[in-house]
Amino acid sequence: MGSENRGKSFLKNTGFVTLGWLSNITAGVVVSIFIARFLGPEGKGRIALALSTGAILGHFLCLGFDRATPYFVAGKKFTDNKVFGSWILAVIIGSVIAYGVVYPLIAVYLMDNVFSGVSKSLLLLAGLSCPLYFLRLLVNTILAGHEEFFRQTCHNIAICAASITAVFVAMPILNLAPIGYVGIHLALGGVSLFYGFFVLRKVICLTPEFNWRDWFTMFRYGIKAALSQVFNLIDLRLDIYIVNYFVGLASVGIYTVAASLGNIFWILPTSVASVLFPRVASSKPEESKRLTAFLCRNFLWQTIFIGLLFLLVSKWLIVLVFGEDFASASLVLVLLMPGVLAQVVSKICYTDCYGRGFPEKVTISVGVTASLTVIFDLLLIPRYGMYGAAVASSIAYCAGGVLGLYWHMKLSGNVLSALIIPKRSDLRYYKSIIESFKRKIF
Predict the structure, then answer these.
(1) CA-CA distances (angstroms) from residue 323 to 8, 28, 176, 205, 222?
(2) Confidence class of residue 184 from pLDDT cuts 50, 70 and 90?
(3) End-to-end CA gap in the chain
(4) DSSP string, 44-98
(5) What phi, psi does 391 have (nearest 5°)?
(6) pTM of the model
C-alpha cells in the first residue's frame, strides 16, 4: 500500500476510533449526570468505587493480553485462532483470580477503611464487570490488530448505548438504589458483548486453538505491558480510594466528575494511539518516527487551546449540568489540567514504544509515575483532600510526559523540537485534508 493510501487509511481509522471514544465519553458524562442528580455526591462516589474496582482488576488480570494482541495479530506472528485461544485462557485465569482471591481479600480486610460506605453485596455484584471487561478487550484488541476499526467502533457504540439505557431505566424510571443500577448495567452490558462477538465473527473464525506454549509467548510480551497497566491504574485510580479513606464518599463523587471531564481531552489522543499501535508494529522505523512526531506536537497544542477555552466556562457548566453540590469540581479540573496535557504526550509516545516492541520502557516509566502518585497522594490528600489528589495526579502525569518523550527520542532518534513545536508542513497537511474533503462533497 502506498504512503498516500496508508495516510488516508490512518485518518479514516482514527475517525472511526474517535467516534467510538466520543461515544464512550458522552455515555460516561450522561451516566454521571443521572447518578449525580438522583443519588448525589455520596451515591456517585459509592458507584464509582464499586465499578472502578472491577475495571481495575480487568486491566490488571488480563495480564497484558490487550497490548500483546494487536502486536501479534498486526505483525502476523500468530494465527487468529491461536490468539483467540490464548485470550480465552487468559479470561479464565483472570476471572478465577479475581473472584477466588482478590474479592475475598477485599471483603475481609478493606471494607471498613478503603471501601468505607460501600456494601459487600454492591462490591461483589459490581465485580462481575471484571470478566465482562476481559471479554470486551478480547473483541476490541483482535479487531484492532486487523485494523477493523469500523467494526470496533460499532461494538463500542453498542456498549455506550447499553450504559445510557441502563442508567435511564434505573434512575428516572425505576428509581433504583445503586445495587439495582449496577445489576441493570451488567445485564445490558452482557447484551452489548453478545453483539461484539457477532461483529468479531465477521472478521475471524471463532474456533480457538488452545496451546500453552502460544499462551506463554503472548504472556511474555504482555506481562511487561501488564506491569505498566498496574502502574497506570495507580496513576489514574488510586486517588479515589485514598480520597474516600481520608475525606469520604462525597469528595470521591465530586472528584470523579472533574476526572471524567478531564478525560474528554483524551478522546482524540487515545483514538490516535489505538490506530498508531498496529501501524507502528507493521511499519518501517522511519515512517513511524515521522508519524509519531506529527501526532504528538499537533495533539499537544490542540489540547492546550481547547483546554483553555473549556476552563473558562467549566464552573458554570458543571453547576448547570451536575448541580450546585458539584461546583467545587471546577477547581479540581483546573488543577488536573497540566497532567491532562502531559498525558496527551505520553499516550502517543508510549504507544510508539509498544509498537516498536519495547513495552518494558513503558513499564519503567509508568512505574516511576505510579510511585510519584502514591507519594504525593499520601502527602497532599490528608491535608488538601480532593484538591491535593488533583495536584498529585498532575505531578505524576507531567513526569510521565517527560519520560515518554525521553524513551521515544532514544528509540527513534527523533529530536524534542519535532515532538513539541508545530511546523509549517502541518498546516499544509491540514489544508490538503480540507481540500480533499471539499472535493468529495462538491
Answers:
(1) 43, 17, 20, 49, 43
(2) very high
(3) 27
(4) HHHHHHHHHHHHHHHHHHTTTHHHHHHHHHHTT-S-HHHHHHHHHHHHHHHHHHI
(5) -65, -45
(6) 0.72
